[in-house]
UniProtKB/TrEMBL annotation:
The keyword Transport applies. Keywords: ATP-binding, Nucleotide-binding, Transport. Residues 4-234 form the ABC transporter domain. This is Glycerol-3-phosphate transporter ATP-binding subunit.
Length: 358
């Protein structure tokens, strides 16, 4: 096998276009996260990869094999669902061995392989327990071991952490990632949790409205968002609407020095991450008067809410950094370094122009 490729994959339910002409390559041995808001088509895409849903159009290739019409049970893909879907009346060991029995593996070999898988997910001491006697994290590990029992070519997980509490979820994200790396298995994880995607993935696919908005390593998705949707969905950002002009952007009466790469007079949306805006004394372009309206101390992060001539914004500092401490009502200056400004064509202005042209 070498990688899994989707070519122009679509899915329509009645009048709803759930997945719209998606082209993607899932690298061999890589973990890819499908990330996006509720209803964007992540689960439908995963179900088509699994063979549980037939595409309305397009092709799915595994290496050089066309598997578009191959039924799910012949794909040799392992799946873990949100609910884990374990058999409550069976022991942990029998849950893992079950799929081996039904695929014709002898009882003793199935028990042997189940034992090794329970070792792998650190549950050897729990083999004789029933599912009802396990914690959420332990159940998830059983579901993972069971999915891996068939030695799948591709491992698919749909919101695998959503039944776990926040602390356990973070631990399991790290464990799952380490296990996936150890096994080197091509893996796709559906999630709506960006921290989960950033913790585990080699590559993140950001989706909205059935389409792919951006694909890339987590750091690129965060630091080099390709459009306003990605900048908004991943991490936090301050947004301002403006118009390009020589040397930068005009926002209301304020000129910001920037390199917008668009012709003059184009409506644009400007984004800056809260940690890239500075409340400091350093000289530089784009210093604007600012008034502190709210301060939030979140422990590791201190957050200042400001009013400025270009609009309201939030600035963040890691605890212990950022020099001077400000309070509500203080006036100061905020600096927006030109290289920290992300500039996108304004999507709403685009829609308005398109409507005007119709
Ligand atoms: N069997 C179905 N019949 C009709 N519409 C469906 C069906 N399955 C999904 N849809 C619709 O397709 C769109 C995409 O749904 P999907 O479950 O793939 O989204 P999602 O990104 O996984 O959402 P969530 O994070 O809420 O699970 C939604 O508008 C949904 O209502």
């Amino acid at each position: 096998m070498s990688g899994l490729v989707l070519k122009s994959i679509s899915k329509t339910f009645g009048g709803t276009r759930a997945v719209d002409l998606v082209n993607l390559t899932f690298g061999e041995g890589q973990l890819t996260a499908l990330l996006g808001p509720s209803g964007c088509g992540k689960t439908t895409l995963l179900r088509m990869v699994a063979g549980l849903e037939a595409p309305s159009g397009g092709v799915i290739l595994l290496g050089d094999r066309n598997i578009t019409d191959l039924p799910a049970h012949r794909r040799k893909f392992g799946m873990v669902f949100q609910s884990f879907a374990l058999f409550p009346h069976l022991t942990v060991r029998d849950n893992v061995a079950y799929s081996l029995h039904i695929s014709g593996v002898s009882r003793s070999e199935a028990a042997d392989r189940a034992g090794k898988l329970l070792d792998l997910v650190q549950l050897s001491a729990f083999g004789d327990r029933r599912i009802g006697q396990l914690s959420g994290g332990q159940r998830q590990r059983v579901a993972i071991a069971r999915a891996l029992a068939q030695e799948p070519e591709v491992f698919l997980l749909d919101e695998p952490m959503s039944a776990l509490d926040a602390k356990l979820r973070e631990e399991m994200q790290v464990e799952l990632r380490l296990l996936q790396q150890r096994l080197g298995i091509t893996t796709i994880v559906v999630t709506h949790d960006q921290r989960e995607a950033m913790t585990m993935a080699d590559s993140i696919v950001v989706m909205s409205n059935g389409r792919v908005e951006q694909v890339g390593p987590p750091q690129d998705i965060y630091h080099k968002p390709e459009n306003a949707f990605v900048a908004d969905f991943i991490g936090k950002a301050n947004f301002f609407d403006g118009v390009t002009e020589p040397g930068g952007i005009r926002i209301g009466a304020t000129h910001l020095v920037a390199d917008p790469h668009f012709v003059g007079g184009s409506p644009v949306r400007v984004a800056i991450r809260p940690e890239r805006a500075c409340l400091d004394e350093e000289p530089g372009a784009n210093r604007l008067p600012a008034k502190i309206t709210f301060v939030r101390d979140l422990g590791p992060i201190r957050e200042y809410h400001l009013e400025t001539a270009v609009g309201r914004m939030v600035v963040e500092y890691a605890a212990g950094e950022g020099g001077k401490i400000f309070h509500v009502g203080d006036t100061t200056e905020v600096r927006l370094p030109p290289d920290a400004l992300h500039i996108f064509p304004d999507p709403t202005a685009h829609d308005a122009l398109a409507m005007a042209a119709e």
